[in-house]
Structures are given as structure tokens and as C-alpha cells.
Batch of 4 targets.
Target 1
Amino acid sequence: MNNLCAEIGWKSINHEGEQLCGDHVDIVNQGENSQVIVLADGLGSGVKASILSTLTSKIISTMMAEGLKLEDCVSTIAATLPICSVRGVAYSTFTILHIIENRTVEIIQYDNPEVIFLRNYEVYDYPKTELNVDGKKMLKSVISLQEDDFMIAMSDGCPHAGIGLAYNFGWKLEDIASFMQTMASAGYTAKTLATMLVDQCNKEYGFHPGDDATACVVKVRKREPMNILFGPPRNRDDCDRMMSLFFSKEGKHIICGGTTSSIAAKYLGKPLKASLNFEKSDVPPIAEIEGVDLVTEGVITVNQVLEYAKDALDKNELYEKWSFQRDGASLISRLLFEEATDINFYVGRAVNPAHQNPDLPITFNIKMNLVEELSECLRKMGKRIKVSYF
């Protein structure tokens, strides 16, 4: 196995006045290192387009993930979806990115804008082979992956942005590529890059989108382990074992909780330096221990990280808060969302006496639920998660 991983992020905006998006992105994992990503653009907009694109992406991604041939997938779509009475075609346009063992990508494109491929932050003119499947012309490419490769797939709502407003013929693909080159070199995550592209499309539409617009970005990067310690162990005799396992792991180390950080400081033989500098009024200040990358308060801080994680998976509207602020929750969010690929949680089951005050809304179950919910959010971001309880 190589040391690469594929980070995937996407965002959509709806045609103005429509409740549903006519584009759909589906991602199916094949083991730990392979994925099938399908971006489908349903005909028209609204409910009908949403149904067409959802069915198309679900059928293709599921069948390809099970190892079936492209020809069988397309034939199944043609037989399953209804024929459009106006256009006389049965299914939406689509782009398929099939990542194999984080070493190779197969790109299959049918009538969507061509996938932009960046290598070394320059536009890479990758080879394309023309296929004919059930009378439909498609393009297929097979490319060996390298670190810092970027693939940007999109629906036609992106290059159509600005027609009759900023541009006569829309936002050209080469201009989108130039825009993404600048952003990719700044080190942003795949999700943030997709958000920036779609937000710019929305701006080009004058914030009145004339079409559904979706961008899906895949960023190839090295694996980056991260370790987070949350709460002291139930049995005090397990403190040294827990600390030994935590600090022996490769990667950065984050400690959450006052008691937990005191135990860590004692284990390391280093002073715990508290701070009274409140960067954010509703998040307690951070502390410092030599040999630890970040030390924060526990439940309140982790709960804020969870809120940021939920938003990042949804509309990503809070990005500007956690990406620039210096409070504990923002610092953890940047480490977990942007840097980490493999995250090890070390969770203590001890009941904190301070949380037994009936006036406080914090209970032991809330603490455990925080870990479970945050772990699930991080898995949806494509992170590998391991949780160890003590």
C-alpha cells in the first residue's frame, strides 16, 4: 500500500426558485483505498432532474463498486429511467471518477464539462480515449496518481455561470482552471475548494443561479495521522497505560480536558501552562504542555468542534469562523478537518464530578455521544477513525 489518500469534497447550488437540486454526487467505497465517485446532472431542473440524477448516480456507483462493466451500467440506466418526451433521451449526463488503491484513477465522462486535472498546480492535458456505449459517445482516461494531483468535476451549471451577465458565453473552462490553480496552491481542502468554486459560480450568476451548479474536487495527498485524548480513564491505574499508548503513536497529539491534561503533564514531567486569554467568549481558553501540539478544555470545546463538523458536511457556512480563529475549537477543527487523514481517539470513561451538578447540561452520556457523533462526521469526511476506550 502506498502512503497516498484521496480527499473528496463537493458542493451544489440549486437553480433559482427550485427546492431540489438537479445534480447529484454519489460516493461508494471499495475497501479502504478505492472509491467510485459519480457526478450526475439530470435533464432540466427541479424534482424531475433530481430524480434522474439521483437514480443515475446511485445505479452507476453501486454497480461499478461491485465490479460490473461500464457498458452494463449504462444499459441498466437506459432501461431503468424514463424517456424524456421533449429530448428523447433516458438519463442524465455524468462523470465517473474511479479511484483504484489510491494509485490510479479511471475517468469516464458523458456530456458533462471535461474534468480539470491539475498536476504540480498546472493544468495537465491527460489522454482521452473515445468509447461508444449504446450509441452514446463517452471519454475514458486512465491516469497514474501522484501527490498533489487535483481533479475537478462539475455539472454544466459551472461553465454556464455569468452568461449574459459577466460573460457573453459563460465562465470558460480554461478560466475556471486558472481560478482553481490559484486556490489549489494555497493548500485548501477538497471540500473548501469545491465550496469556493461553487460560491464563485453563484457570484457570476449575480446570486440568481440560472441552472443547478455542482463541483466535486478530489485532492491526492499523503496520509497524516492525528491523535486526540479526551477524558481520564475510568480506572486510575490505567493512566500510565493510556498515556503510553497515546504518546507512542505517530503524528500530532491533541489533549482535551482539564483533568486529562494534568495527567498528561504529570506523565511527561512537564508543567501545564494555563491561559486566561479568551479568543472566543463561548469557548474556554487553551493551555500548553511541552511535547503536546494542542491542549484544550473538554466537553464544551469538543461540542463546538462537532457543530463545525456537521456544518462542514452540509453547507460549509461556518468555514470562515473555524479556519481563521485561534480558539481551541477552531484549532482542533483545522487539525482534524484539514490536516488529518487517520485519527485515533483515546477516550476515558471516568465520570467527571464537576459534571454532576444538576444545573449543568453535561452528563457522561453526552460526552460519549459527542465522541460517537464526531467520529461519524469525520468518517463521512473520508477520515480513517479508530476509537479506544479506557
Target 2
Amino acid sequence: MINELIFPKPDDMHLHLREDELLKVVSKHSAAQFGRAIIMPNLQNPIINSELAHKYYDEVKNHTKVHDFEPLMTIYFNEKLTLEELKRIQISSKIIGIKLYPKGVTTNSNKGIDSFNSGYKIFEMMEKLDIPLLIHGEVNDPNIDIFDREKIFIEKNLINAHKEFPDLRIVLEHISTKESTEFVKETSNNIAATITPQHLLYNRNELFAGGLKPHAFCLPVLKREEHRVAVLGAAISGNPKFFLGTDSAPHKKSEKESSCGCAGIYSALNAMEIYAEIFDRNNAIEKLENFSSKFGADFYRLSQNKNKIKLVRSSNKVPNSIKIDNGEVIPLLAGQEINWNCSAV
């Protein structure tokens, strides 16, 4: 039995830090466990250009300056992106890619694109400049069942886009279906995917067990057990096309427990300990290092982090809540015992 792991600090390749008081509190949690994180741009006023990205970078660094932590910024995909702006994005050492949201599919996505094909001219420029495209892969057609929206997005949009732009590096974010795992496995090395802890832990029963559970609500929504098993299999397979991305997305408890609860699960507080628990439970703890610290870095052509973390098998209780100004955030596995502790080396 492995009781201790030491490896290069991991990368969170999909992270929400929000703004104001939330940013101040939650950024420190990610910085304590991760060496880098790709920061999502869907703020209330989205990060639509390099100037705004650099400003947001400075805000994040100001709150995490006591840690060895590098935020990797993204631009909110919008149809005003010009070749000149894309060139500024390409040469920036602080910006890693462009994140595409179909309009209305998740938090602060109302300024996303309504037609995926309308982005083709920008995709072509991104391909030539080798700027990665990060995608929230769900259709926004209200007539499509919410449990099918990821599957339909691949069939309707992603297969054709990859054929049209085979050299464009694409990350299908927070995959939640068997179809997504199969698509990523079967396509070229320019396609990869991030995997969250919640899509490894839960199927859709978690949303309704014992009553409606708003803190288990995320988008893409949790799916049937066969899909959870497929995503878990991808994560622990050792296939370098699948890597860690928490999609940690904090909301105040009052916003989650409301008449229209926000989508998002907050996992950053104990993210590596939770991943360790999942991999250990599935007899794959030796696969965690590459999933966390190597595969994502390789896809984004980054060197591995020089500093290290230590994971030790020992009892660890997740707090019931995290206090912030005027409220609290409920973390993933709140109040539960997990069997790993993470610390910097």
C-alpha cells in the first residue's frame, strides 16, 4: 500500500476564481496546492481581450503572492477578436488560450456565441497562430434534453470543427459522458480533455438523493452511472489526452440554495486530496502524478513545475463551510472524512 506520494506541483487546467471577496479567499486555496492554474474568463464583465486579461492576472497575483503559483489567463471567445488582438494574445506569457462558451449554457455565458460555426474565421486564425481553444462543449438549444447537450455538441459541432481545423489544439472541458471520452480517445493528439472530481465521484442520483441537492448541481450536469464509469476509466487510464481540471466554481451558499440555484461545485480547498482519494479507491494512485502534473503541462507545452507537493495517507475532515464576507461557500464533500492530506514540500 502506498502511503506517501511526492511529485511536482500539479496544474489545475480549469479553474474559476471569480471576483472581489470570492477571489480574495478562494485563490489562496488553489495556490496552496497547485503550481499553476488556467483561469476562466467568465466574470460578470468577461475578459474579452489581452488588456483585461493582464489586469485580472495582476489581481490574482496580488492575492496569491505568498505562494509559488502562476495563473494562466484565458480570453472569453467573442466575435470581435481580430488578427491583431490574437497576435497580442499569442505573444503574451500570461495568456494560455481562448475559452468558448455557447451562449447561455452556464454561469456568465450570456455573452457567448449563439452559433458555433460563426467562430470559424477566428478558429482559422487561432490554428495558424497555434492558440489553444478551450470549449464548454454543450449545445444551447432549449429543445435538447439537458442530459444530451454534451453528446449533441460533439456530433453537431466538434467533429466537423476538428476536420476543418485539424491543427487547432482543442480542450474539451469538464467532460461528463461516455461519448466525450470516446471522441477524445479516437481523435488526433490535438484534442484533449479535462476531468473534474465531481464527474469522477457522482452520477446524477447525487442531485436527488434524499431531496434536491443544490450543492451537487454543476454544468455539464451529472450524468448516468455508465457515463461516470467511462469518465473515471479515462482519468485512471494513463492516456495523456486526459488531465486534471477541477472546474472549481465558487458560489455563495445563499446563491446555491435559492429558487434558481447557480451551477458550480467548489472543490479547490481539498482538490488534490479528493483526487488522491478517488485514484486510491480505484487502485490507480500511481497514475495520479501524470494526470495531475505532466499530461496537462505537456499538452500546453509547459515544463513541469519545479516545486513539489506531498500527499500523505491520513485522516482529513473537509470543513462544513468556508466563511467569506456576507456569506459562506460550501465545499465539495463538506463535513466528510477523506484519507489524504496535501502539503508543499
Target 3
Amino acid sequence: MSRQDDRKNIVNYFKKNLKKGYTLDALRIALLNQGYLKVLIERAVEQATSELSKAAPVLKEKPVIKYEIIDEYDNPVTIKKSWWKRVFG
């Protein structure tokens, strides 16, 4: 196998296992323990992260998070400030 084939296999390994939820550090250590060169691993990490970032969707607007307290009958609950908080802030 050539270095290009090795790097392509490692890139695919990173992409597949990152999608499964493994961390980059855990994957790096596993490959180092298998005897791969650190330089080859780091280049594969760069390539895999760039490919994954290109495939990620781009958010055009920030989501708006709204909080609402609901009682057991699915009615919204309004919380009134206590007298002390209204007076003294």
C-alpha cells in the first residue's frame, strides 16, 4: 500500500468514527498504537475535518430560544415578581 492509500483509509476511518461519536484524541491514540506515523495521522485529521466541515449545513440565522412555563393543564403560567423585588429591584 502506498502512503496515499494509507491516508485515504485513515481519513475514511476518522470520518466514520467521528460520526459515531468518538473523540479525535481517542482515534489518534488508537492509530498511533497500531503503528501509523504521527505526521500521517495529523494530515489525515486535517483532511477529514475539512471534508466534514464542507458537508455540514450552514445556518443562515440564529435560532430563537423561548422559554415558557406550562402547568399540568397545558396553560401558560405567568410569574409575578414579589413585592420586595418590585420595590427594591
Target 4
Amino acid sequence: MPVYEYYCRVCNAKFERLAPMRAASDPAQCPSGHEGAMRTISLMARPSAGETDSSAFAGGCGCGGACSCGSYSAN
């Protein structure tokens, strides 16, 4: 299930919420309880033209994040 970012116009809060893709455009309730928070556009990292090392985006971890899961091996 994807994580979506939302913005509440009432209290200016930004927050994230797990939601099924079918509910991606539905308004959400902010952590303060205000109804009608709307989804915002999320930015993501993108490799530069000369970037070929995918570990820069995976944090050097074999599972995709810098979680110290033990699958990282220093060279």
C-alpha cells in the first residue's frame, strides 16, 4: 500500500498516510482532526545523467534501505 502526503489548509499541517491506490484522491483527516486535507505532489530522488551506482539510492543496504539488516558488505 503506498504512502501519500497530505496538506491541511486549516492548520497548515503536512502529514503522510497509508492508503489503497483506489483511495488516492480521497480527502483525508489531518492529525488535528480537520476534515478535507488534500493530497500533495511528492518529490522523489532521481539519478543524475552520469549516475550508474544504484547503491546511492539504496543506502548501501541489500534490502533497499539503510537499515543495518546485515546484508551490507564493506569493500
